[in-house]
């Protein structure tokens, strides 16, 4: 697993690499292995020709890596993302931003039940902005998943997401 992870991290110089991982013990084990490998390489660096770049060094480099923490505007997912951020920071990796998906508050509903649920997001969103994220992006709940370039561009412009066409799939 570590070698596959290292390969993906090294491919990021040629394009975008998305690693989707839940904030679980597996993520921590991967970071621990990455750190252990880094320490071993650093200890033996005098015997290695040229400059060595470990996966941990790439993850710690904000010019190379942008870590986005994606979560839902609910208590448990926000707490899990905050715990993952703390683990990343202990490894010397600073997340670039938080992405808060499926926000009712951002969707600006008019139905009284949905308005009440949207209001319930406010304390979580404020806590993320105040204590967690250097930057945060709020993605509204939309009727269809934004699949394909046109749907993502519409979402970025704040337009409604229409039912995806076969061309976008």
What does this structure look like?
This protein is mainly alpha-helical and 169 residues long. Helices cover 50% and strands 9% of the residues. It folds into 2 domains: 53 residues, no CATH class; 77 residues, no CATH class. The chain is built from 7 helices and 3 strands, in the order H-H-H-E-H-E-H-H-E-H. The protein has a 3-stranded parallel beta sheet. 16% of the residues are buried.
Question: Can I get a quick summary?
Answer:
The chain has 169 residues and is mostly helical. It has helices at residues 2-11, 25-43, 55-60, 75-90, 104-107, 112-132, 149-156; strands spanning 68-71, 97-103, 136-140.
Give short descriptive properties of this protein.
50% helix; 2 domains; mainly alpha; 3 strands
Computed CA radius of gyration, to the nearest angstrom: 19 Å
| SSE class | mainly alpha
Strand order of the largest sheet: 1-2-3
What's the number of domains? 2
The description of the largest β-sheet is: 3 strands, parallel
By DSSP, the count of extended strands is 3
- Structural shape: elongated
Count up the helices.
Answer: 7
Chain-averaged pLDDT: 78
Which residue ranges are poorly predicted, with pLDDT under 50 across at least 5 consecutive positions?
162-169
Helix content: 40-55%
Element-level helix/strand string: HHHEHEHHEH
Tell me the span between the first and last alpha carbons: 30 Å
Percentage of residues in strands: 5-15%
Topology:
Blueprint: H1 2-11, H2 25-43, H3 55-60, E1 68-71, H4 75-90, E2 97-103, H5 104-107, H6 112-132, E3 136-140, H7 149-156
Parallel strand pairs: 1-2, 2-3
């Amino acid at each position: 697993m570590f070698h596959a992870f290292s390969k993906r991290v090294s491919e990021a110089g040629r394009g975008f690499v998305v690693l989707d991982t839940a904030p679980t013990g597996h993520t921590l084990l991967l970071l621990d292995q990455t750190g252990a490998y880094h320490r071993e390489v650093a200890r033996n660096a005098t015997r290695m020709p040229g400059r060595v770049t470990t996966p941990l060094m790439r993850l710690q480099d904000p010019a190379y890596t942008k870590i986005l923490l994606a979560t839902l505007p609910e208590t448990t997912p926000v707490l899990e993302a905050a715990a993952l951020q703390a683990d990343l920071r202990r490894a010397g990796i600073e997340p670039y931003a938080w992405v808060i998906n499926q926000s009712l508050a951002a969707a600006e509903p008019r139905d009284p039940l949905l308005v009440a649920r949207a209001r319930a997001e406010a304390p979580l969103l404020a806590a993320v902005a105040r204590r967690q994220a250097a930057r945060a992006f709020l993605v509204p709940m939309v009727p269809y998943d934004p699949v394909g370039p046109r749907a993502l561009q519409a979402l970025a412009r704040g337009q409604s997401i229409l039912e995806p066409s076969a061309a976008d799939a």
